[in-house]
Write a structure and sequence with these properties.
321 residues, Arc Repressor Mutant, subunit A, Rossmann fold, seven-stranded mixed β-sheet, three-stranded antiparallel β-sheet, globular, binds S-adenosylmethionine
Length: 321
Amino acid sequence: MAPHQFLAVIGAAEVGLFDALRDGPADAASLAKATDSSPVGIEVLAKVLVALGYLDEEDGRYALTEVSAKTLPIDELPAMAAFLKEGVRQSLDIARVVKENPPGGVLGWGAIRSGEMALGYHALMRWLASSVVDEVARRATFPRAARRLLDVGGAHGLYTMALCRKYPLLQGAVFDLPAGLASAKQTLPLNSDVSDRIELVQGDFNQDELPEGQDVVFLANIVHGQTAENNADLFQKIGRATTRRGMVLILEQVPDVPQTQLGKGIAAIFGLMLYLFSSGQAYPYERLTGWLEDAGFGDIKRQELRVAPGFSLVSARKRPR
Ligand SMILES: C[S@@+](CC[C@H](N)C(=O)[O-])C[C@H]1O[C@@H](n2cnc3c(N)ncnc32)[C@H](O)[C@@H]1O
């Protein structure tokens, strides 16, 4: 979901628009009644959601698109909306943040360690990942001998599950804080074909070492949420945790690589959101490759995702010593 879509989704979640369409199509008048909204207001919102691809419209009747009906976590939208609203509210303090550069950003990881905010945040992560995971798994290429994968900050574990599905001999581990692992505990039972190959490891990657002996370390949307200093340390830990022929696969927003203007814009805006959220950034490609090289990796390759403009998949292999 691109950042500019948040507002429409928050609005729809809060008035119950998606909920009102759960049982089938409806016109603006019925939607206004069902959501206790102004007929003009609900139509304005519904039309935006049509333009963004969440709804279809035919003969003045609105319906969930096939994709929305399948993937939109309607029951979790209110929790997600609460998290997004708090994020937007805090981000309006941007002038102070730019002037003072407060350590840890305006919300920070502390705000989503538990409670409603954690539930909303992790529901959002699951939803965002569900639209990207298939392409990531399709593009990921691991050595045949790879047996152990560590998904750092893996939360819901959807990437680990898809990668274990692609590589039947792979054992996966999701490494995260307790709220992240609570999210994985929700998705694992829905993926029983691979769940017995996946371990949940609780830890703090800024405090603890990562479990050793990994053939692949995967990081999705982690680098952008951290300061440069923490990233440099994290890549050193990844270097120590990987085997002699190990590799790293990173999913990140990298604004300065050749891509469409839309991709550059989305990557840059993600960077700004993460700067506000937790003092992170959408780091330049050279910064990323520098951390990888300093940690002993080479053969660095990059591809851009098709389904998510602005998202790059970067792989690197341990340099022979
Ligand atoms: C942006 S989410 C990414 C989740 C998942 N990798 C994805 O792309 O959908 C960042 C994840 O990192 C976890 N995380 C943040 N700081 C962490 C830390 N210090 N140690 C372990 N996990 C952390 C969060 O709990 C969250 O699950």
